[in-house]
């Protein structure tokens, strides 16, 4: 049986290569079931001061050498904070183009997986797919880890109707970057969301305790 091909969307201040490293345990856990392909966000992110890093970092202490993002909530500062309310964002169109180009060059993909800002972006991509605004998009399922609803006004159209795509939502009960209530607020945007919670923080959980939930979800598509 061929493994499922999954497009992986990293978090803010990460890159495709750093996210690949951070999901090593997940790849090992599901190695017979999935082939994970990692995408790079188009926007370079300035290295912030330490205080800003605490608020917005998806990559752990010290940040990532190749820091990238999918969009900015602060247009002037070109920075992002998941809890920042804004009217307009910057950079989302370029990020959608990156996904579209990846599908043309490397597709097809069975599913899409996103972490943190990448998880929020995946929800938007699924919405574009169901609104038939992106003919290239043909994902059969989505996995959103520490995902959330964007707090930006111009993104509200992504949450108009519950999405039909099968989805697995994974989040940590001790997550201090994206508190679990933010991930729960995204659930009503999906028709029948499956949920996996873990007792930890802001990371991709991949221990033997989580294997069955991942495997059972993925089996539907093999």
Q: Can you tell me about this structure?
A:
This protein has seven helices and eight strands, in the order E-H-H-E-E-H-E-H-E-H-E-E-H-E-H. Mean pLDDT is 91; it is low at 50-57 and 59-63. With 222 residues, the protein is an alpha/beta fold.
Low-confidence stretches: 50-57, 59-63
Rg of Cα set: 16 Å
CATH H-level superfamily title: Alpha/Beta hydrolase fold, catalytic domain
N- to C-terminal distance: 8 Å
Describe the largest sheet: 6 strands, parallel
Total of helices: 7
Q: Numbering strands along the chain, what is their spatial order in the largest sheet? A: 2-1-5-6-7-8
Mean pLDDT level: 91
Total discrete domains: 1
**Secondary-structure content class:** alpha/beta
Oligomer: single chain
Number of strands: 8
Shape field? globular
At CATH level 2, the architecture is 3-Layer(aba) Sandwich
Quickly name the level 1 CATH class: Alpha Beta
Features:
222 residues; alpha/beta; two-stranded antiparallel ribbon
Question: TL;DR of this structure?
Answer:
The protein is an alpha/beta fold and 222 residues long. The protein is built from 7 helices and 8 strands; from the N terminus they run βααββαβαβαββαβα.
SSE blueprint and pairings:
Layout: E1 4-9, H1 16-22, H2 24-29, E2 34-39, E3 43-44, H3 50-56, E4 68-69, H4 92-106, E5 111-115, H5 117-130, E6 141-145, E7 167-172, H6 180-184, E8 194-198, H7 208-219
């Amino acid at each position: 049986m061929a493994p499922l091909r999954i497009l992986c969307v990293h978090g803010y201040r990460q890159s495709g290569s750093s996210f690949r490293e951070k999901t090593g345990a997940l790849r090992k856990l599901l190695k017979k079931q999935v082939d994970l392909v990692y995408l790079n966000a188009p926007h370079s992110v300035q290295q912030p001061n330490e205080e800003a890093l605490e608020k917005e970092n998806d990559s752990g202490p010290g940040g990532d050498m190749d820091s990238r993002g999918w969009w900015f909530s602060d247009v002037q500062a070109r920075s992002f904070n998941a809890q920042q309310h804004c009217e307009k964002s910057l950079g989302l169109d370029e990020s959608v183009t990156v996904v579209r180009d990846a599908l043309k060059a490397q597709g097809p993909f069975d599913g899409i997986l996103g972490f943190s800002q990448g998880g929020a972006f995946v929800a938007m991509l699924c919405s574009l797919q169901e609104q038939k605004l992106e003919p290239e998009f043909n994902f059969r399922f989505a996995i959103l880890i520490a995902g959330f609803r964007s707090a930006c006004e111009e993104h509200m159209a992504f949450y108009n109707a519950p999405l039909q795509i099968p989805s697995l939502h994974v989040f940590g009960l001790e997550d201090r970057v994206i508190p679990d209530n933010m991930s729960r607020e995204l659930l009503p945007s999906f028709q029948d969301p499956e949920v996996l919670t873990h007792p930890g923080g802001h990371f991709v959980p991949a221990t033997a305790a989580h294997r069955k939930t991942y495997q059972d979800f993925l089996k539907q598509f093999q």
